[in-house]
Amino acid sequence: MKKNVLIIGAGGVAQVVAHKCAQNNDILGDLHIASRTQSKCKAIVASVKEKKSMKVANGVFKTHTLDAMDVAATAALIRKTKAKIVLNVGSAFLNMTVLSACIEAKAAYIDTAIHEDPLKVCEPAPWYDNYEWPRREECKKAGITAILGAGFDPGVVNAYAALARDDYFDKITDIDIIDINAGDHGRWFATNFDPEINFREFTGQVLSWQNSQWTSNQMFEIRKDWDLPVVGTRTSYMTGHDEIHSLSKNLDVPNIRFWMGFGERYITVFTVLNNLGLLSEKPVKTAEGLEVVPLKVVKAVLPDPASLAPGYTGKTCIGDLVKGEKNGKLREVFIYNIADHEEAYAETGSQGISYTAGVPAVAAALLIATGEWDVKTMVNVEELPPHPFLALLNRIGLPTRIREGKEDKPVTF
Amino acid sequence: MKKNVLIIGAGGVAQVVAHKCAQNNDILGDLHIASRTQSKCKAIVASVKEKKSMKVANGVFKTHTLDAMDVAATAALIRKTKAKIVLNVGSAFLNMTVLSACIEAKAAYIDTAIHEDPLKVCEPAPWYDNYEWPRREECKKAGITAILGAGFDPGVVNAYAALARDDYFDKITDIDIIDINAGDHGRWFATNFDPEINFREFTGQVLSWQNSQWTSNQMFEIRKDWDLPVVGTRTSYMTGHDEIHSLSKNLDVPNIRFWMGFGERYITVFTVLNNLGLLSEKPVKTAEGLEVVPLKVVKAVLPDPASLAPGYTGKTCIGDLVKGEKNGKLREVFIYNIADHEEAYAETGSQGISYTAGVPAVAAALLIATGEWDVKTMVNVEELPPHPFLALLNRIGLPTRIREGKEDKPVTF
């Protein structure tokens, strides 16, 4: 059954989502996109038309103005557009209001990152217990599917973990999720997604799951170099990340860590801004008496991540290094994807980071439309069958590969 | 004749000025201090009383609330306090309104830094032509003395240049003004005076006077290490500075440069903030629609310079390296002062940077009171006789020394 889709948000990820939904509008039906600034939505739809991404060329793709913090307005728009699936790729601050609207208006809900409270950074672990999971019963009662964290990381990396569990291991001891952007945007400094959300990831403590318990470290305290396919040897630092908070609960794996690649420039900028207090989410008062959140000013001066796309070159490598046992023998595999910034831009007008986050969310929407993932409750991606998801991603732009020892090959289903 | 003094401002320099005026209130008469925040003025007067700085113990020292951007209010306060000398050590944005009030109410005017327009950075050279010098005739007509830039640099270093011209050289080819703060405030990062004014010094082009013309460079483009008395070998960078803009006009010297000492930490912080656009004086708009000047937010998160004083250790070395000819022979002298942060704090409750800026301004006020510098027009310090000024500074805390070849000795008058 065709299902209308409402996309919320109008940044780089929304642009990818719009293109991918359009390419599959024979399955999805009418498309709608809404954000606070309708002109951004219009620009995205114009790009979709310009690139002839609409599979059903005369299909509907409409734009709307929406304050998604307003539950009633969001529910009203879901009803008006007859949307059966809401793809929430707006700010992480909107998740809970959009979820409420979906429950009220009976639409499936998909997001790509955990809910955040603007005034709080790094809440208690597991993070999903703070906002999402307490609402599972509500979703079940309303009979709506809510897929949490269906981007790349979290999202595809959770499916990789599930795939490892199902197909490659009897017992898993370690999952190291590694996220390397080996691309070059040519700017002195820029973040690849919303700077506010980006920096907020790193201003708190670094939580990891080790020896089956939460472990706390400082940012940039633990460094590890990895020899990776295509992008070569890269430096990463242990960081906190959403997926550890669901995988630690849903998988019986004692060690789950997340490693993010950082260049020297990022570390210098982060260190200066953080030490000066400019990454704080707490308001300060200027000498003139104006109350302002420093991090929001940092965001205002940095390049719009969407603006990086045209000149972005290079590739990303994101995957799960999984260790454990199979048939009584030690085993180690790296399940991963390589994405290319220039190819992402040519196809969708967005760079590779937006591409890797947006494409999986659309894959999740397609699997809800086909019924394969329409589970009528709230789930994280590792709770869903990984095969249909990864098979679909193989076809629509994010193919999975596996490296084991000297062998490196595509994963096919 | 005793002259009442009105101090405008209530920061670290104002605190030094208050103490030094109090120590000389037998010459100066009633003292008044005014700023937007009267509580800061009261804290300064309390410190003066606590350290028993009042020479005439039962002398007057009153506090006032004043918006010094308001000419009429400032003139009214000058009249009310019967102030004959206004020591303007408030923000550099106030200079022209305070000068207007002095002209209107017939009081002598002293400042320690050039006037700045909040919306402009690095205006055309010579800087004094933009605001101050066009008003010289007004001062002359009103019969008031206006001494511009009577801090250390500008101020004492201008007097050093005049001293070199009068006593040490027949002809000067080069004046290199060197400002090294070899102190340690123990913070990760802090500016020694108002961060807004501090960073504004370095965000524009670097103007120097070379081969009798204005020369432009980038900040941190030209580095020079100096072997200096007491503080040893120190790294400096060519920077723009007020005094070049008057010395180049008032002295017949083809090369006048300014060198400021910077540590690695300062350069890193400055480079990051400047490259990101966080030092901009131009407002940006946050995603939430709030208009805010990034530099004012940086100021808001940085430590209050006055708060650095208690733990500040080490010394400053500021002086003029002068090259030229005397009696047909090449000559090179370094005329300088060494100030100590801890001694400055013990005496005035402020650190050394505030001390070196504030004490000369009070010396200028004393020389206006005694008539020696009461010239009834607008002047820069090098246009005034240097001997009484430097002799007075020898007595009140900033002794002058001279190094020539292997000889290094006090300059006495």
Automatic annotation (TrEMBL), chains A, B:
In what residue span(s) does the Saccharopine dehydrogenase NADP binding domain sit? Answer: 5-147
The UniProt record lists the Saccharopine dehydrogenase-like C-terminal domain at 151-397
Output the SUPFAM superfamilies linked to this UniProt entry.
NAD(P)-binding Rossmann-fold domains
* Gene3D superfamilies per UniProt: Dihydrodipicolinate Reductase, domain 2, NAD(P)-binding Rossmann-like Domain
Identify the InterPro entries for this entry.
NAD(P)-bd_dom_sf, Sacchrp_dh-like_C, Sacchrp_dh_NADP-bd
Q: Which PANTHER family does the record associate with it?
A: CARBOXYNORSPERMIDINE SYNTHASE
List the protein's name.
Saccharopine dehydrogenase
What is the protein's species of origin?
Candidatus Tokpelaia hoelldobleri
